[in-house]
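Researcher: Here's the sequence for the chain we discussed earlier.
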Amino acid sequence: MQRVRGIYQTVFFALFIFLLVMTAYDRMAGYPVRLFLDSDPLVAISTALSTGTLYRALWLAIPIVVLTIFLGRFYCGWLCPLGTAQDWTAKLRKSTLKRDMKINRYRKIYRLKYLILMAFLVMAVFGILQIGLLDPIVLMTRALTTSVFPAIDAGSGLLFVGPRGFELGWIAVVLLLAILVAAYIRPRLWCKLLCPLGALLGLLSRWSIFHIRRTQPTCTDCELCTAQCQAGADPDRQLRKSECMLLFNCLETCPPDALTFGRTGNKEDISEPVALPSITRREVVGGLLAGLTVPLFLRTPITSADAPRAQLIRPPGSQPEDEFLARCIKCEECMHVCPTNVLQPAMTEGGFEGFWTPILNNRIGYCELNCVLCSEVCPTGAIEKITLDRKLGRGEYAGDPIVLGTAFFDRGRCLPWAMNRPCVVCQEVCPTSPKAIETDEVVVQEGNRTITLKQPRVVPELCIGCGICEHECPVVDKRAVYVTSVGESRSRKNQMLLDTEQPGRRTS
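Model: Thanks. This is the structure I predict for it:
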């Protein structure tokens, strides 16, 4: 059984990596890049609570839920890529019976993951979606996307075209390394202590029909099964169904073959398993109160939706800010497929709720005009799936392109305006037709020289906020042209007083 599980783990881990790599290398190429995120039950349930809808392919989580009710936490032991990585790390340590007996016993502190789950779900009810911070699939995707893959590419150039980097990538990889180091010290410590997805599957497994069974006639109470149970399920006593990850280490090491995997309710069983985690009423109340604390105290009365922020420029197709925050799980798939690396994880630009969500940093890249990949890969609809016609305002959307923001000039830093030096880079790279940056020809006197200059200005009705002008501006330390979020299509509040009202901007 161990060998079979090892094969399954390797196959699904390789599939997870393959899908991420092909997403970046072939830019979709028809691969189901969201497969693991779409089948994550915690993502499906939490987004359903925060938005009241089950978006797109998140129904793929239903088979996982059904199989968990029948088999228990098979997902943790057989499919989860982060669990597989922990198992491989744990194999590197030296194992002794006395030490394993001590560290693999169940501990009361392992109930913490259920309190974390309750807090996250309560927050989701109030529209605050933070499960992506600790969900193992999201966490693994984020670490590989923002740190591991860019590091590999920097050394080999195998995964991407051109250098890529993410400003907060080190945080994600440090967390991943901490989980693996913890697994080396205590196998599957993350799964037992903090994993909210494991907690959810543990609660669902209370109804599981099949589980590890201990039969009386042959059991010698040697406790070898507990020494090898890295899930902390105590199979030598009353098996804790909510903790058992179906690793089957206990079955492989039981000398008298007193343990089997089978249907519940057999007369030969020594005792019925413990169906639910032993959480006290006080702990349940504490978990619920923790979930209420965030919306009541940490969410400021003035949000980024009420008071728009200049640097909060979202990807094309993004929902209005409140809806966006209620859907975004911070998986960074949108950043993974972005061809120009313009999408970066936010820090404080969107407030507490917006940490790790995607924003455009035009100093690093720009929004490619003929690209909608970020909308293709978003698993929860924070970025709505759009077509090029919708983005560019063509066909049935003629005259109504998606506007990300508006460009402005700092005339005190612009070369033609401030220093009488010719420069028309911003106008040359502007992709709209007609161009959103026009120039006025002026003649200036500098000493004995007469200089003819073209001084740029923005036509706000035509600007779509793609950011290429800011990215290409030759004033590199602080750009002479910059884009802010004002005028964005997704907000009625974040608008300027223009000659033409939204919608009505035009592009090619």
